[in-house]
Amino acid sequence: MTQATAQPRRHQATLALDARATLGECIRWDERQRLIYWVDIPGRQLHRYDPATGRDDAMPLAQEMGCFALAERGGFICGMRSGYARLDRFGGEFTSLASPDYDPARARFNDGRCDSAGRFWAGTMWEPRDRAGGIVYRLDADGRFGAQCNPVIIANGITFAPDGRSMTLADTTNHVLWAFDYDLVTGIPSSRRELRSYEPASGRPDGACVDAEGNVYVAIMAGGRVEKISPTGELLALIELPIPNITCCTFAGDDLRTLYITTARTRMTDAELAAHPYAGGLFVWRLPDGDAPGIIEPRYAG
Prior knowledge:
- This protein has 1 helix and 25 strands.
- The protein has one helix at 270-275, and strands at residues 9-12, 14-17, 24-30, 35-40, 45-50, 55-60, 65-70, 76-80, 83-87, 94-96, 107-114, 120-126, 134-139, 145-152, 155-160, 166-171, 176-183, 188-197, 204-210, 216-221, 225-229, 235-240, 246-252, 258-263, 282-286.
- A hairpin with a 4-residue loop joins strand 17 and strand 18.
- The protein starts with 8 loop residues before the first strand and ends in a 16-residue tail after the last strand.
- The mean pLDDT is 97.
């Protein structure tokens, strides 16, 4: 892992929406509708936020949605507690799909996104947190799926470089963000290496996204920040928030230069919530001139 050779730049994010989500996650920009989608996992809601108006609509869910990706033919491919499902539209109907054989009483889907070939990668979290019982799966466009990568406790931080040649995966509970070589033709990762690790007191890597240069923006749970990390592991910048639990981020806007960030209230005491009243809110930060913009999120090809 390459260590930082200079002090990272520091920035401040501001509140966009006082959402008070229990656990905001999996935030994605829909460039076709110019809307942002995100989930409150334990709150069992899929949100649709309009940056132009500030309006946020919530769709109730019958079970936890851990992650989703937009689909080329419309709607969403989703990782639910019970497994894969297709949602035809916001506010619409779910169709259950063939799913991995795991015990939904002890595990659920947590983090996921598509590679540029349109495969949906999604990992589970092992809720007892006593062993690496979470698995990362790849769902192909034809509906076939299989276990990939290595077992984790909580799968997070799945990203793909713009050129499709590398991939990241965080195991949140073990405080590590890994990088892999990635074969876009076969959809197989290899050569796992540590991109960045964290001392327990400094926070844990959670959801992430990448910019057009392949830098990884990773949310730090219990760390109050988003880190911008180079493809070689150098810490380039810190986007700081006035609350501790930072969960995921995405680039949005027509120029992909606005970073939206989800946060959480989960596991905070009454005193902590009183000290951080905007915990669970949606935050925003505008990239400085000269920084690379984000990328359009690939859609599920199935």
